[in-house]
């Protein structure tokens, strides 16, 4: 069951400048940052709030590490902006299978590794009214990070 907004993914050209905008404008601080080579992104997670189900909500700022990555291609075509939304679930495998059964294309056969050790998959934007949609199961200890 999808229980929360895990994050909103925002594509940007310069991660450091974008982080500084969110800090100076809203007071959001970086909770976690990492490079995900498989996805071709350098990212910063800005935590918005914690929740009782072991997850939280974040803004995920994404700078491509390669022009041919999903975010690199999207930025070249659209410029900066909201790239995807991600729903949190305790069971990404089960929810992905159920959604696949409804005729929506799930992009990965098996969930892959996302931010902070989470397990993620994506739904094709053309099957979701133009919204690239991600499903996320957080790692059990994700809340403990500082
Ligand atoms: C592409 N399209 C999008 C879109 N990306 N529509 C809405 N939102 C997006 N983000 C549209 C294009 O405009 C195009 O429509 C059509 O989809 C095909 O796009 P394409 O440019 O030809 O690119 P493809 O087909 O090679 O790839 C699109 C696809 C890809 C969604 C399959 O981007 C993908 O596999 N995404 C999932 C992985 C991902 O996005 N990773 C980055 C975040 P038209 O009408 O022009 O044909 S990694 C992440 O977020 C991790 C770290 C985490 O959360 O933990």
From TrEMBL:
Keywords recorded for this protein, A-Z: Isomerase, Metal-binding
Domain of life: Bacteria
Keyword Disulfide bond annotated: no
InterPro entries: Glyas_Bleomycin-R_OHBP_Dase (IPR029068), MeMalonyl-CoA_epimerase (IPR017515), MMCE/EMCE_epimerase (IPR051785), VOC_core (IPR037523)
Primary enzyme class: isomerase
EC number: 5.1.99.1
Pfam families, A to Z: Glyoxalase_4 (PF13669)
Entry keyword Metal-binding: yes
GO molecular function list: metal ion binding; methylmalonyl-CoA epimerase activity
NCBIfam families hit by this protein: metmalonyl_epim
Family classification: Belongs to the methylmalonyl-CoA epimerase family.
Protein name per the record: Methylmalonyl-CoA/ethylmalonyl-CoA epimerase
Taxonomic lineage of the native organism: Bacteria, Bacillati, Actinomycetota, Actinomycetes, Kitasatosporales
């Amino acid at each position: 069951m999808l229980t929360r907004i895990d994050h909103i993914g925002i594509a940007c050209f310069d991660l450091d400048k974008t982080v500084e905008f969110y800090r100076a404008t809203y007071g959001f601080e970086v909770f976690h940052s990492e490079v995900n080579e498989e996805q071709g992104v350098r990212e910063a997670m800005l935590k918005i709030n914690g929740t009782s189900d072991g997850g939280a909500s974040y803004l995920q700022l994404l700078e491509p590490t390669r022009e041919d990555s999903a975010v690199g291609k999207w930025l070249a075509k659209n410029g900066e902006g909201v790239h995807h939304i991600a729903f949190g679930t305790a069971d990404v495998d089960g929810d992905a299978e159920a959604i696949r059964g409804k005729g929506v294309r799930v992009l990965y056969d098996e969930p892959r590794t996302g931010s902070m050790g989470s397990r993620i998959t994506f739904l094709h934007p053309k099957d979701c009214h133009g919204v690239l949609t991600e499903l996320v199961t957080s790692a059990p200890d994700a809340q403990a990070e500082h």
